Amino acid sequence: MGFLKRFFRSRAAVQQLPTGSLTVDRHGQVVITTVSSAYPRALLRDIGQEVLALFREARASQMPMAEVSLHFASLHITARELRGGAIIFLFPQAAFSPTTTAPRL
Amino acid sequence: MEIRHKILVLDDDAAWLGLCNEMFTHLPSKPEIRTVASGARALALLETEPFRLLVCDLKMPRMDGLQVLSIVRRRFPELRTIVLSGLEDEEFRSRAYALGVDLFWLKSDMQTNSQMFLDCIESLMGRDMEGGFRGIQSKSLMDIIQMECLSRSSTVLRITRGSLVAKLWIQDGELIDAETDGARGEAAFQRILAWKSGTFENLPAEPDRERTILKPVNALLLESAQAMDETADSVAPESIEQTAHRKTIWKLALLTREGAEFVITVPAEGQGEVETMGMQPSEPLTKWARRAAETARRLGERIEAGPLSHVAGHNLERQLLVLNRDNKSFLIGWPPQAEAGPLLDKSKKLVSSWDS
User: Fold this and answer.
1) In contact, B278 and B289? CB cutoff 8 Å
2) Which of B131, B192, B299, B313 has the fewest CB atoms within 10 Å, counting from its CB?
3) Is the pLDDT of residue B252 over 80?
């Protein structure tokens, strides 16, 4: 099948930002997600696992968090702890769009 | 002897590299042009040779332009950068500017306005980076404000200095409002004028903005210059202990005034001592602050989300904010009942004043 690559070159692509939500279990496995299937699952797992690590280390610091959010220039990630796992919301930010955040419970 | 600058052009399309190479030979300063087809090769060249400007495509295999730019921004902060892309989605423009590029051009625009594009490149390469504000040309902030006012223009100047952001509203050549870090009006303007470097951009005018500044801008500039001179003259000698004590008292007062519970300053590993104000030193909290900043930075690079603004967290007992500034992470604790909305501004104000 390798010879097909000579005729059909893979197209370079800049990674779009993820938008939607995902739920991860305590092991970091994505249980359910509304993020487009075009977004690499490996990156979604990375997001889930890094967020879980933040919750876990906050617990180890004797300061367990109910909610953690990461604010990047182009993306906001808001996560709520959910019985060892987490539900994570992903909001891409455009230059002039209003900031959207999930409402606090 | 006139300096001959070097331009590095990065694009995976060989034909496009040839086009850029030919076009850039028309630049008046006759720079040396190098072309590469991969991000890895571009980074290797940047390590070994002194380039003035990087012209970078976005859509490339293996390492895309945003990945290259996020690395370049950290390792070569003096390098000017232009994105030259065929991607018309506004999201990529925003993400590129969020990474700190100097200019973003579409390839289609470059071809239809080639002379303007060459003028932009020549201007970008020609300015010096020793302080000053990175906008179109390097100028002091006073120069920029005076230019806008003398031209009787209406605009909003957005000024960025690291994690600090400020805005100046100019209407028909008059400065009508200023805002930064929880301060507004003349107080904000005086604070902004003390910034010695940063970047600025022009935003659309806001004619309905409420006027909080009544003094003419020249009077404000004069007052600010006088205040800076007086501060430079009034340094009185005192012992190291007195200075340290005074700083501690000042920081505790600042903490109390802003309503924060504590501040932990965490330098990068091996680059200084952890400082804790408002609570007993806590090794676990210090580790969490360092880890949160590092995790967020790593994640942001991996998913190409741009630089980190801050990390926030809350539980029933308190709200936390982690801000980075000058190779340090600041973990700020706020009471649970503090309003979440203004917390970021108040935290930035704390951080910006902390070591001043």
Assistant:
1) no
2) B131
3) no
Q: Closest approach of chain A CAs to the CA of B225, in angstroms?
A: 34
Q: In whole angstroms, what is the distance from residue B121 CA to residue B135 CA?
A: 13
Judged by CB atoms closer than 8 Å, whether chains meet at A50 and B340 is answered as: no
A7 versus B340: the higher-pLDDT residue is: B340
Average pLDDT over residues B261-290: 83
pTM over 0.90: no
**C-alpha distance from A102 to closest chain B C-alpha (Å):** 13
Query: Which of A50, A67, A95 comes nearest B97 by C-beta?
Result: A95
pLDDT digit string, tens, across residues B123-164: 888 755 444 444 444 446 766 777 677 667 788 888 877 667
Alpha-carbon separation of residue B275 from B210, B251, B297 (angstroms): 40, 11, 22
Closest CA of chain B from A49, distance in Å: 10
Is there a contact between B285 and A54 if contact means CB atoms under 8 Å apart? Answer: no
Task: Please give the Cα distance from A41 to A74 (Å, whole number).
Answer: 20
Closest to B306 (Cβ–Cβ): which among A10, A68, A73? A73
> Poorest-confidence range of A9-13, A26-30, A85-89, B272-276?
A9-13
Strands (E) across chain A are located at: 20-24, 30-33, 67-72, 75-82, 85-92
Contacts of A40 in chain B (CB under 8 A): none
Instruction: Kindly tell me if the per-residue pLDDT of A66 is higher than 60.
Output: yes
* CA dist., res. B290 & res. B295, Å (int): 9
